[in-house]
Amino acid sequence: MLDPASGSSVGLLVAGLIVLVGAVVQGSIGYGLNLLAGPLLALIDPALVPVPVLMIACVQAALAVVREHKHTEWRGVGWAMVGRLPGNVLGVLAVASLPLAQFNIVIGVSVLVCVGLSMLSLKLSPTRPGLVVAGAASGAFGTASSIGGPPIALLYQHSTGPVVRATLGAYFLLASISSVVTLLIAGQVRVEHLSAAAVLLPFMLAGFAASGPLRKFLRGPRLRYAVLGVAAASAMFLILRNLF
Q1: How many CB atoms lie within 10 A of CB 207?
Q2: In a 3-state reduction of DSSP, which class is residue 98?
């Protein structure tokens, strides 16, 4: 586990910069912190995923809700959470039962599936059945690998920027808390996870602060495709490294 006292200052700085960039992206387009940071942090130190990433995601989501709470679609958040809770159970089973190499492969595959979902150009809308199904997929992926945003973001991809950011922020806040609680009950949360989250938190706060003025510049398909491309490439590297 990365620790300021461990001497891994380079790894710590790299991990922090990854979180900072992810926080800028999520603060600008509504999601991307866990999608970007999950596979990359797993390469640096597997213990950083999923618990520490989920913890800092809780804080970022809370800040997003405060910043744009007037645009939150709470009905959609509620139905997504109905699906999220059983999905959490599937995710925690993967965390508790899989060896490290297989778990890293699960993370990589989860990212690729989420990237594939995000690339779809289907005219989906946030209906009740769609939100429940997306919430279940988000719970499984999010609890196992900290990456649960794309299934929900896919349903809101045609909404306005403030609605996307506020609604996803509210969902991520409740979802991340539910995942951490599920992992805690399953005995998968340790003291070192709290230390790692505390170390990464200032980087996340800096990224969120920077995303405010950058929101009007960081939008549109180019940024979205760049995030998905980096996430897919890092996921493929993570899978290949653990396979070979």
Answers
A1: 25
A2: coil
